[in-house]
Structures are given as C-alpha cells and as structure tokens.
Write a structure and sequence with these properties.
Rossmann fold; 4-stranded parallel beta sheet; 6-stranded parallel beta sheet; 12 helices; single chain; alpha/beta; elongated
C-alpha cells in the first residue's frame, strides 16, 4: 500500500498540517523539521497525490477578509471595519474577485472555522483587520500556501498596511500644545503591543517632551467606548488639560465619563480615526481622519501582487502607510465651546493635510 501523508507525518514526528507545509514550501517551518519531513518522504518513497495538490493550489477568485468582531463590530454607520470592508470590496470588484467576510469572535470555535476556510483552499489569500489577532493565529495562516496581508497590525515577514500614525499624532499634539497652550496631557491607549497604539503613544511622548509638557498614559485591554470611560477613572493628579485618545471610540467614552466632572475641570478631548459619530458628539470631536477605504484598497493591491507574482517568495515584505488628515472641531477648544471647558483658549481652526510617511 502506498505511503500517505499521515505516514510521513508520523515518521517525522509532526502533525499532518506541518508535514504538508514543509512539502509545499510553506513559511514558518523550521529547517530541522523540514529536513525530518523530507527524510521521511525519502524513506517511505512517498508520492503526493498530484491532483489533490494542484486542486489545493487552484485559484478560487475569492479573498477572505478576517475582522476581529469584538474589536471592530460590523455595525453602526462609519465604523472602522465597515470603511475597510468598503475599500476592500471595491478594489476586489475591479479585479473580478469575490469577497468572503469572516468575523472572528473570541471563542476558539469561531477562530478555527475562519482559519479552516483559508487553510482548506477556499480562498486565494486573506486580509486580517486589526491588532487583536493572536500571533499564533497569524503564524498558522502564514504557514499555508495562501498569501496574507495585515491591516493595522504587524507580523514578521507579512505585508502590512497602517495609517501614518506618527505624523497624524504629531500634528494633533502640536495643535494642542502650540495653539491652545495645554501643558498637561493624558493619553488613553490600547495594549502597548498594538502597533498603532505604540506609534501614537511614542509620537505623543516625543512631542510633549520637546515642548516641556507632562504626559500620563493609561493603557486598556481594548479600545472601546467602555475602555475610554474606565480609563478616565484611572487618571491621576495633576489633572490633564487635554486628553488624547488613540481612537474615537475611547475619546467618546471619555467624553461621556467627563460629563460627571465639574465643567471647570473638563479637559479638551481628541481622538483618532474620524468615525461618523465623531461629528455628532457634543461637542463635535477633533480627530485625525484615517482613510480606511484606502487602507483596504492598498491591502488588496499588496495581496493580488503576491497572488499574481511568478516568484512570490522573492518579493520584499512591504509596509504601506496611508496618509491622514487633521480634522479640527470644538472638542479641542477651537470654538471655545462653553459647555465643555470654560478655560479653553479658542485657537483659530486651520485645516491641514498630513503627507504620507515612509
């Protein structure tokens, strides 16, 4: 009876999935493991079923979009994930590709079902949205034959698309410090390991240090409205003049919590992303607009570039930065909104555009 892949895996002391990746040139297979698998193939005289292998590699003209549902719920006008989804869908339609939307929950079953859709060859590649995906999940997907692109996240050896976080935060902080004269800043942030959080916090610290301003940073496990509200409760004296949230959800949560604070102590509040709710808050939220649709389109371009490449492995890993735009509204004090902060200095609004980074 001819040897099977299961026989090869058993002799090499690895799982069938690892044996398959080793034989198909998949990433993240240690050299020693690959050698054991190849030795087992030679010893057993194993011949892979060519038809099955070719079928697994056949293109499906379908791309998977995996979104961490707890972090980016797919409802509500103008959410981050909705705008990314719109950009991805439009770009794929131009190239004749279908979209398979896979929301990922916190439960193991949800993650496994979505990963299986990619591993089993039902898609030509995948785009992962958000920094909440565990490293082992990304590594598992990267080990398949299907190319992968990350949005708002980073992983070694994987193409990524991010906003120009440092430029946007720098311009926002300069406005707070130079136009309004705030000297005590607070930053409401997500996990320090999340790339966008880390870059925005680093930029804020840098500009505050150069300006001689103080800054306190409060990290939360997520970046939701609830996290923003709870983070305000962990602020310490000296009470800040201005709060910089790493996204609009945290900023809106902070503003809701601050309504319980006497008006004379309410700091300015600013965010990042410019979701639809930012303009509807009271006062309207000053924020850095991120073009999520452009991020989705950029991710599609990277992914299709790898899918269509003759030698995909020879392509360099790319880090694409999407330009951002500062949107000045009343929450930073530009209009001296009387119900929010009586001490605001009423700087003159000026719209500006931040160029793309490198």
């Amino acid at each position: 009876m001819p040897a099977t892949l299961s026989d090869v895996a058993r002799l090499a002391g690895v799982s069938e999935a690892t044996a398959s990746r080793a034989l198909n040139g998949g990433r993240y297979v240690a050299a020693a493991t690959r050698e054991r698998v190849e030795a087992a193939v030679r010893q057993l005289d194993y011949l892979p079923h060519r038809a099955a292998r070719d079928l697994s590699r056949a293109q499906t003209a379908t791309i998977a979009l995996l979104v961490h549902h707890a972090q980016y719920p797919a409802h509500g006008e103008g959410t981050f994930s909705e705008r990314v989804l719109a950009g991805v869908a439009a770009a794929l339609a131009e190239h004749g590709y279908d979209l398979l939307y896979l929301p990922i929950g916190d439960d193991a079953g949800s993650r496994l079902r979505s990963l299986a859709a990619v591993h089993e060859g039902r898609t030509d590649g995948a785009i992962l949205v958000g920094p909440a995906f565990p490293a082992e999940g990304i590594a598992s997907l990267a080990g398949s034959d299907r190319p992968l692109v990350l949005i708002d996240n980073r992983f070694p050896g994987i193409d990524a698309v991010l906003a120009d976080n440092r430029a946007g935060t720098t311009e926002l902080a300069q406005h707070l410090l130079e136009v309004h004269g705030y000297r005590r800043l607070a930053c409401l942030a997500g996990p320090a390991t999340w790339p966008s959080t880390a870059e925005r916090v680093a930029a804020l610290r840098s500009i505050a240090r150069r300006a001689g301003a103080t800054i306190q940073v409060v990290h939360a496990e997520e970046t939701t409205m609830r996290d923003g509200s709870e983070a305000v409760g962990r602020l310490r004296d000296p009470w800040p003049d201005a709060i910089v949230a790493v996204n609009d959800a945290m900023a809106l949560g902070a503003m809701h919590r601050l309504r319980t604070v006497p008006s004379r102590r309410r700091p300015a509040v600013v965010g990042h992303d410019d979701i639809a709710w930012a303009q509807l808050s009271t006062p309207p939220l000053t924020t850095v607009r991120v073009d999520e649709a452009a991020m989705g389109a950029a991710a599609v371009a990277l992914l299709l570039g790898r899918i269509n490449a003759k030698d995909e492995e020879s392509l360099p890993v790319r880090d694409v930065r999407v330009p951002v735009d500062l949107r000045l509204r009343q929450s930073c004090g530009c209009s001296g909104h009387p119900s929010w902060n009586g001490r605001l200095r009423g700087g003159r609004p000026k719209r500006s555009s931040v160029p793309a980074g490198t």
